[in-house]
Amino acid sequence: MPGQYSGGPAIRRTSWRANTATHLAGLALALLAFAAQRQAPTSPAVGGLYALPILLGPWTTWQRYTPAATLLSIALATAGSVGFGSGTLPAFAGETVPMIVALTLVGIVIARFSARQRARDDATVQLRDVKRALDQAAIVATTDVRGHITYVNDKFCEISGYSREELIGQDHRIINSGHHSKEFIRELWVTIANGKVWHGELQNRAKDGHPYWVDTTIVPFLDERGKPFQYIAIRADVTARKQAEERVRQQAALARVGQMAAVVAHEVRNPLAGIKGAMQVLIGRRAKDDEELQVLRDIVARVDSLNDLISDLMLFARPRPPQLADVELLHLAGEAVTMARRDPSGQGLDIRVEGDVVTVRADADLVRATLLNLLLNAGQALGGHGQVSVRVTQPDGQASIQVRDNGPGVPEALRDQVFEPFFTTKARGGGLGLAIARRTAEIHGGTVTLACPASGGTVVTLTLPGSANPDANPDATPDQARGNGRPAAART
Length: 492
Known about the structure:
Elements: H1 9-39, H2 45-55, H3 65-84, H4 89-137, E1 139-143, E2 149-152, H5 154-160, H6 164-167, H7 182-193, E3 198-205, E4 211-222, E5 228-237, H8 239-267, H9 269-285, H10 293-317, E6 325-328, H11 329-340, E7 349-355, E8 359-362, H12 364-381, E9 386-393, E10 398-405, H13 433-443, E11 447-451, E12 458-465, H14 478-482
Parallel strand pairs: 7-9
Antiparallel strand pairs: 1-2, 1-5, 3-4, 4-5, 6-8, 9-10, 10-12, 11-12
């Protein structure tokens, strides 16, 4: 409650010292006024001197000081008037009574003013302590009505990687990950612009490029007309929870895939081998100009596609342990680009490879296959024609391979599903390419993320540990380091 908040031991000790000094000063002023009254009993200035101790009320936190100072000044003024004045009743009524009334009014005004000031001071201390507690527990930022950042706390700077100077004056697009659609952001702004509180989960992107999730509450501050003049966003980091939820989904999907893979591998692969062998015998018996040869070759191609899908299924359900060796990623990316250009969806692409020379401990075949998957996905999203860039960097000791295209991007509603097994929006492929890419990243201790920037296109980032892995295979051969030139699982 206002007026009762102590503010802590340190504040109480400081207040006690200040109060003591104020009380002694008030007493001294009262005695000084009494002495002045003795010298000039009828002087109008005497009443002003007696008011000085009362006026010290706002400088003390003792709530009874002003009434006590008022009573002391009235008592001394009355005693001085009787002892030093003419002693007549008309003189007392004409000089002392008006001074007593004036001192009483001054005391009432100062008492009310001091009470309000103490309430404001207590509220200020409470607000400061609440702010300190909030800053310790949450990520806090305030913006003006145009969205420009006016304040961020230390936790905001810590999780975003930006300094306070880099953030103040910017809008929240500086941490926009591109994960949410324009419609989602527009709905958020419409809600808070109408003076309503918005609550939800947002994916942001730190300065170093890594995404993080925050549970966000945005509260508008309203003026007397009910219009927002400022917004405060209070966030909590929920990245660990989102990752745990994702792992649970992946494990459930993997369990389903494992059960299906065992059945498919046993019940489907053998008949497919028989069908393919029979078709090859029939092809060998046909004349070269036989019109049915193309139909038979199409059947063989479809059987091969089914076999590829089964291979992907087995690789995803039962991944082999990585054969770790020193791998130079820029060279590996070049090999993946060469393979992508042999595929129909990659022949018309303008693919650029750039970046730093980065060496990591990894399985060359698995990483190459992952990059090939990402490149073929980009090619299919572009319809076989467009620009794709592959950039290799090493931020903060980790290796990062970024595959960016200038295509239409991934719709907001589908971005959380693209890494799920069997999810695909294309006619070609079984929907395991990105799922295998994520598994490959995870068994290397890395991550793979997808983002769609506001400028357009899709960015998929594969991150691998940049330091040597203590579990690396010490007997790895140079061939394992560079790979054998074959993709381990290059399906989309």
